[in-house]
Amino acid sequence: MPLLPLPSPGHTTVRVFLGLLTMAALCGAEPKAPPASPALPSATPSALDSDARGWIDLLSQQDLRDWRRERFPATKPMGETNPWKLDVTTGVLRCEGTGIHEMLLHHPSRGDGIFHAEFRFVGPAAKPNSGLFVRTSPDAGTWYQAQLTPTGLGMLFGQVATSDAKPKRVSAGARYPGLMRPNGEWNVMEITCRGAEVTIWVNGHITAQATSLATPQGHIGLEAEFNPIEFRQLKFKPLP
Description:
Blueprint: H1 14-27, H2 47-50, E1 56-57, E2 67-71, E3 84-87, E4 92-95, E5 101-106, E6 113-121, E7 131-136, E8 143-147, E9 156-160, E10 168-172, E11 187-194, E12 197-202, E13 205-210, E14 219-225, E15 229-238
Antiparallel strand pairs: 1-15, 2-5, 3-4, 4-15, 5-14, 6-11, 6-15, 7-8, 7-14, 8-9, 9-10, 11-12, 12-13
């Protein structure tokens, strides 16, 4: 193992440094720093801000008739309590997701387009978590989810149903926790699907790009995952 430079004598971190060095020698490897998020591309405006034409308001029905609760994961039973409620005055869809894990899918199924959503976590949740779905089957056999949790923000992951009942897991992008705005402030995410390609844009930056979506269309959706969260400006723009 190559030698590592020591801090100057008398430095307050010498003992800590030597302890790390000794542990590294015992483990046969040098101590490693936590991996950093890749550099972000230059900031760009959202698709909605760039062109406000052609968008479908997914919250236009006050009774949420176009949205359906579905089990997620598919093997888990549906909860007895409906956590979703739309405030028609503010246009905010609130999910009282404490103790609940499910998804809310919008109908009909959609193909190429841009899914725009604004979200914020509310309350003192210790581990806020949720996600946005695209190209998802009603039975949750195939799904693609953009992570909204701060520790995974920017990633796309999911699974594709197969004939042998062993779903194929997929993932793309990297985690950018620094993009999450302070608790209570609105975050903006857009997911663009075109053919087999998907791009995730979060708060001004592209964080994930993938080129292997196996399904040409599917449902847009939201995830309830044990924590309260609010959504607004849920819109979809079909692409030619």
